[in-house]
Amino acid sequence: MARHLAAKKTCREEIDMDVRASYELPVPIWVMGDALDATYPTGYGKLWFNVVMPHGQPPVGGPPPMLGVESRPELTGEQVVWVKEYGAFIPESLRPATALHRVAVTDAEGPTYDHKPWFTAEHQLAGCIGEWFNDVRTWAEIVTGQDLDPDHRVYSAESVGAGLTFIEPPRDGALGFKITTPSVVPLRAQEWASILGFVRDGQEPPLEEVLSRDARAAHRRGANRRAIIDAATALEIVLVRHVRSHASQLPQRQRDRIGERAALGVYLSIAENSGLPLAVPADRLRWLTDLRNDAAHRGAAPDHVEAGNAVQVMIDFLGAHGRLRRTDEREPDGGELMLADPETASLVGGEARPHGR
Predict the structure, then answer these.
(1) 253: which residues sit within 8 A by CB, 6+ positions away?
(2) If 0-12 CB within 10 Å is exposed, 13-18 middle and 19+ buried, where does residue 272 land?
(3) pLDDT digits over 251-295, tens only?
(4) How far is CA 89 from the centre of its chain?
(5) What CATH number should be reported for the domain holding residue 227?
(6) Which terminus in the chain has less CB density within 10 A, N or C?
């Protein structure tokens, strides 16, 4: 009986090449024009597939010809947006750029199971596409600073005085909208290709960069205490790694203070007493340490400016000492990063390029 059950649960690798689908991204991702009209291999877990990019013809782009959308009228016409250019400040060197709304998914390849014959490629794709997007958008947020959280959107248009109707004075001139033109760093074609490859291979970004992303997102949404705690935690991870990587160069007395417990204040003291060069002045790091301690242990409520300054200290420190390094003029949102961990990947000219691909 046991042998029979084991045989029924055998996983056989087979190729299912006839899956074609359109996928609307939960949040548009800005990409450069050179990323369009191309096919990129990606995947999630044991399922591999291709992402085929739309063409960028204005006003809304269009599907790649091989998708065959003619059989699905709801995917045709100008009401179906594939790409669209919105008002945004984009660095001159990264133009033209557009917001990617939809992609085609083709050539799904995954395992089949004797005990689940119904679990075909389309079922596997439907089951993982949400997690796939979450991993893709996490990498995109880290590399470019774009804000792509589908569950907590930040909009560029905000209503002023929503719900108010003035009786006296008998006019609504105080009501309206506040519109913000965002600064956007779009993904280059090679960065987009590398991100899709990272997700396919299950390669996660450095933890400190995820925390940096979370700190920036919290600050944008007015969650100042969360922003400061995440910023300080990201800083702590990088500072501890930086000090430990230079342990052989430290005075013996300071080297003896290095332990398993990664306390931000302790490692800052070790760096100061050892004369270890830091890209951010020690007094700024100490200020962030105290700000975090007050927020976490004393219930202090930092204001938006303090939280913004804390996030900037974190960005500056991670950009110099983290595994993701700044390559060009610094962007206020944490974009323009270069992966500097030779064990996982290398970047050339700011473009991610996984080894062996």
Answers:
(1) none
(2) middle
(3) 999 999 998 676 888 999 999 999 999 999 999 999 999 999 999
(4) 19
(5) 1.20.120
(6) N
